[in-house]
């Protein structure tokens, strides 16, 4: 095996760590601490009923909420992360690890997707945006809603907050991002000139939260989130951190937190073990995509405007995940759209993602 091929395999082996490190990209914010065994711990999976059948491979729901209570007032002001939280899950991702640990598929679920959210005490549902499920019933209802929409059984739930995201980025020496155009956001105050930039924790938070860069809005933000994860993989900082046993455990413990309120089904040892099992997965066998969108639904009273999934294409995507198949053919040459088109979403491989 050639030297550059070996390097590429090692990069792929860090994917799970990078996904955990970049979880706030899927949230715009996140809720409180989520890892150790406290008496008040929430059991996400124990109360779920009528779940999809278990299939080959492992599927993880990466999710954050828009809580803002884990960073200081000064940090909120410096990195423009204030505002009133609705205690919702802004953006969610399903991460499927193949049974043989030789492929990873990541599908983003836009927060404004239409959802039929199950009522707590009956078999009925009510219409709302997908991100409202967490607000109404916490992680258990979010998992139940997503499983009912996708038919994919979720094996683990992973969530981090602003504090742990910023600390984790700083722990690996920052993450380099690349843009071929000016990136300016009126809400987060992101202001990046064309070129490459190494972002520390706070500026990285601004980058992954920005959704007012262009008219692509949330879909554009999701695409930048995917790029951030890939750039984390490519960087030497994460590779060096996970290569050192002590630093690796410190980093994973930072990602998971130390005072859990939610049972994620993960501990530091398990997360590290899975990351190491994926050591030889190349970026070319990591897939990033967004659930296919057909357009907007009519305005729903109490929910507003919602995104309508393309049922046929989305069904094919989730069927592939359930059956442990790749989302795209092995010889696919798809490229990310810039800016992305709502009705022409593509799945891209990790080695094709670079500059905005």
UniProtKB/TrEMBL annotation:
<dbReference type="InterPro" id="IPR004474">
    <property type="entry name" value="LytR_CpsA_psr"/>
</dbReference>
<comment type="similarity">
    <text>Belongs to the LytR/CpsA/Psr (LCP) family.</text>
</comment>
<feature type="region of interest" description="Disordered">
    <location>
        <begin position="320"/>
        <end position="341"/>
    </location>
</feature>
<dbReference type="InterPro" id="IPR006311">
    <property type="entry name" value="TAT_signal"/>
</dbReference>
<protein>
    <submittedName>
        <fullName>LCP family protein</fullName>
    </submittedName>
</protein>
<dbReference type="Pfam" id="PF03816">
    <property type="entry name" value="LytR_cpsA_psr"/>
</dbReference>
<keyword id="KW-0732">Signal</keyword>
<feature type="domain" description="Cell envelope-related transcriptional attenuator">
    <location>
        <begin position="89"/>
        <end position="231"/>
    </location>
</feature>
<feature type="signal peptide">
    <location>
        <begin position="1"/>
        <end position="31"/>
    </location>
</feature>
<dbReference type="InterPro" id="IPR050922">
    <property type="entry name" value="LytR/CpsA/Psr_CW_biosynth"/>
</dbReference>
């Amino acid at each position: 095996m050639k030297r550059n091929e070996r390097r590429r395999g090692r990069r792929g082996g860090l994917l799970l760590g990078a996904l955990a490190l970049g979880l706030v990209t899927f949230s715009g914010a996140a809720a409180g601490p989520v890892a150790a065994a406290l008496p008040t711990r929430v059991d996400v999976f124990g109360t779920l009923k009528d779940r999809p059948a278990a299939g080959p491979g492992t599927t993880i729901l990466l999710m954050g909420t828009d809580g803002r209570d884990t960073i200081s007032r000064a940090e909120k002001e410096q990195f423009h992360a204030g505002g009133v939280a609705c205690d919702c899950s802004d953006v969610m991702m399903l991460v499927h690890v193949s049974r043989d640990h030789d492929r990873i598929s990541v599908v983003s679920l836009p927060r404004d997707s239409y959802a039929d959210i199950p009522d707590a005490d009956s078999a009925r549902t009510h219409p709302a945006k997908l991100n409202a499920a967490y607000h109404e019933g916490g992680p258990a209802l979010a998992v139940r809603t997503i499983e009912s929409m996708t038919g994919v059984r979720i094996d683990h739930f992973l969530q981090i907050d602003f504090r742990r995201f910023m600390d984790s980025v700083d722990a690996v020496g920052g993450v380099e991002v690349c843009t071929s155009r000016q990136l300016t956001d009126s809400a987060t105050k992101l202001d990046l000139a064309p070129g490459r930039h190494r972002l520390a924790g706070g500026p990285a938070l601004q980058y992954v939260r920005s959704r007012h860069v262009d008219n692509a809005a949330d879909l554009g933000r999701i695409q930048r989130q995917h790029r951030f994860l890939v750039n984390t993989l490519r960087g030497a900082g994460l590779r060096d951190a996970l290569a050192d046993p002590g630093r690796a455990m410190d980093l994973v413990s930072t990602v998971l937190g130390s005072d859990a309120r939610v049972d994620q089904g993960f501990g530091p040892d398990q997360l590290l073990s899975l990351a190491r099992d994926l050591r030889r997965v190349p970026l070319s066998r990591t897939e990033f995509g967004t659930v296919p969108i057909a357009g907007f639904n009519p305005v729903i009273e109490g929910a507003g405007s919602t995104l309508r999934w393309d049922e046929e294409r989305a069904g094919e995507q989730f069927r592939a995940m359930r059956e442990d198949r790749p989302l795209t053919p092995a010889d696919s040459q798809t490229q990310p759209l810039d800016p992305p088109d709502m009705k022409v979403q593509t799945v891209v491989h990790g080695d094709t993602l670079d500059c905005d």
